[in-house]
Specification:
Layout lengths: L2 H25 L10 H11 L3 H5 L10 E12 L15 H4 L19 E4 L22 E2 L5 E4 L2 E2 L3 E5 L3 E6 L5 E5 L4 E4 L4 E4 L9 E5 L6 E7 L4 E3 L5 E9 L2 E8 L3 E2 L2 E5 L6 E4 L4 E5 L5 E9 L5
Parallel strand pairs: 1-20, 3-7, 4-7, 6-12
Antiparallel strand pairs: 1-14, 2-13, 2-15, 4-5, 7-10, 8-9, 8-11, 11-12, 15-16, 15-19, 17-18, 17-20
């Protein structure tokens, strides 16, 4: 085949190919108009958003509270708790730091669980006296002092789980004779010399606890929760908690978190009479509606296998 014939054949093939492409494009019907389905979108958003609809729902959708009430209770382990691996202490300060305990799960003599965090998950209006009792006003913008400072001694954060609200100032203190680096996840990174103090004033809340670590002593760890409201508590050494003056007359959602387990799920709950009923808290959530003036008790047992 001659050169010109080859060129002619190539031109014919290119023309045919172009025609097919053009005809195919023109022959396809115009795509149907795509519209968003709000209900499906909200459903998917709730499914993939760990904090669910309540954390971001409009506060205006809630009826006004009719008063205030108090929630008290306790957390205990049911069964033999798992053994925790000892913390690995190394570096130049090892002799000073000694052998700190692993505080990922602290259990008392009678099964009491320390450092469980309970906090309101429902989004509520801000600066509204119907939703926030006047007793909280004095503490709203406070510099947290006394036993509420965030201190470190013997290479241990003395508050393993700490909760505060936006607008407050946390005093980060180093009472050791060695330096520390206190790094708050999503927040500042303080280099604390001997006897030093730094202030931390978070401007926005966290949806779940964030980590606090020491860059110098990597075994040091604590957890910090910041909320826009005052309705939270951390269980004490007796496994007990109390949240005073919660808005009453409206259903609210709380979340419950423990460091080793994360958000609690399978629990047994009693109203204080000793009779326990099995409940499932999806990602640590439970709902409750309190009556004005009530003091409601919720005692919780958690099977030891949940912590394996």
């Amino acid at each position: 085949m001659g050169f010109q014939a080859m060129v002619n054949r190539a031109l014919v093939f290119a023309f045919a190919l172009t025609s097919v492409v053009v005809l195919s494009g023109c022959g396809e019907p115009a795509p149907a108009k795509v519209t968003a389905n709000r209900a499906n979108g909200n459903s998917l958003r709730e499914h993939f958003n760990e904090d669910g609809a309540n954390a971001g729902s409009a506060a205006a959708a809630l009826p006004d509270p009719t008063g205030f009430a108090t929630l008290v209770g306790s957390f205990k382990i049911d069964g033999e708790p798992p053994e925790l691996a000892p913390l690995v202490v190394s570096g130049n300060d090892a002799s000073f730091c000694g052998s700190p305990l692993n505080e990922q799960l602290v259990i008392g003599e009678d099964g009491e669980i320390r450092d469980i965090l309970i906090y309101l998950n429902t989004k509520i209006p801000q600066d509204n006296p119907l939703w926030e009792h006047e007793s909280y006003a004095i503490d709203q913008g406070a510099v947290l002092s006394g036993n509420r400072i965030f201190d470190q001694k013997q290479c241990v954060f003395l508050s393993h789980v700490y909760a505060m609200r936006t607008g407050q100032t946390l005093q980060v203190v180093n009472s050791d004779s060695v330096g520390h680096n206190t790094n708050i996840s999503g927040g500042p990174n303080f280099n604390l010399g001997v006897g030093a103090t730094e202030n931390y004033s978070p401007s926005k809340q966290t949806n779940q606890p964030v980590s606090i670590v020491c860059g110098v002593h990597p075994w040091m760890k604590a957890n910090l929760l910041v909320r826009d409201n005052p309705y939270f508590a951390v269980t004490d050494s007796n496994g007990r908690f109390e949240i005073k003056n919660i808005p009453a007359g409206v259903e609210l959602e709380f979340r419950v978190w423990q460091e080793k387990k994360g958000f609690l799920g399978n629990v047994s709950v009693s109203n204080g009479d000793g009779n326990f009923t099995q409940e499932t808290w999806k990602k640590g959530r439970f709902k409750i509606a309190l009556e004005p003036g009530q003091t409601v008790t919720r005692d919780v047992k958690i099977n030891a296998t949940e912590f394996n």
